[in-house]
Structures are given as C-alpha cells and as structure tokens.
Amino acid sequence: MSAARGVKRSLLRVRVVPRAAREALSRDASGILRVHLTAPPVDDAANRALVVLLAERLGLPKRALALVRGERGRDKVISVDGASSSELEARVTRAVGSGVDKTEGRG
User: Fold this and answer.
1) Residue 10 to residues 64, 69, 83, Cα–Cα distance (Å)
2) CB-count burial class (<10 Å; 0-12, 13-18, 19+) for 8
3) Average pLDDT score over residue span 8-27
4) For the chain, which has fewer Cβ within 10 Å, the N-terminal or C-terminal residue?
5) 4 falls in which pLDDT band (50, 70, 90)?
6) Hey, which CATH number is domain 9-96, 3.30.1200.10, 3.30.230.80, 2.40.37.10, 3.40.50.970?
7) pLDDT band at 99 (very low <50, low <70, confident <90, very high)
C-alpha cells in the first residue's frame, strides 16, 4: 500500500504511560514523547485513548492517526496523515510546551 501522490504522512514514536493520574504529553530528557493516559492497558482501551488524546492535542482528526507498531507494548509508532515530519514536530512541540518529564528515570 503506497501513499497517494501529494499526501503527507509521518511517523510518530511514543512511549505510553497507562493508568496515569492525568492525561498529559511530555518529553523525557532524551526527547522521547511520553503520553500519559488514565486508561488501563486492557481490552485496547489505552490504544484507543492514545489516538483520541493525540488527535485532540495535535489538532488533527482521529482518522489521520493509526497505530502501526506496538499494539501490546508501551513503545508505539503512530502513522500521521496530513502532516510532514517538520509540521508534526512543530505540533508536538506546541502540545508539549517546554516542560521536561521529571520521571525520566522511572519505568
């Protein structure tokens, strides 16, 4: 399956933190995007919550996001339609702000 001509598509690597106290996006000291979800990693709930949260925070429709790797693990790869790599990075930076996750050494 190939992308249609002119369609922008990027990959976003994330580490999910399920059962968090609140939903949030952060980056650890190494630059990894951490997505804190209140949903548990049960019955695909965390994966669904991941797509919803990323769509909301990045200003993209849910249909533009698809989980392509990491269905059962914390490390995931999301395909993002409609944004080039640089556009996606700018959206992520705006969504995260300038904060750095202080829990980088845990888990």
Assistant:
1) 10, 14, 6
2) middle
3) 95
4) N
5) low
6) 3.30.1200.10
7) very low
Q: How far apart are alpha carbons 27 and 37 in whole angstroms?
A: 14
Provide the token pair at 45. 């709930």
> CA torsion sign, 92 to 94 to 100 to 102?
negative
pLDDT tens for each residue of 20-54: 999 999 998 888 899 999 999 999 999 999 999 99
Reported pTM: 0.83
Q: Tell me the domain boundaries of the chain.
A: 9-96
Cα angle, residue 82 at apex, residues 40 and 66 outer, rounded to 5°: 30
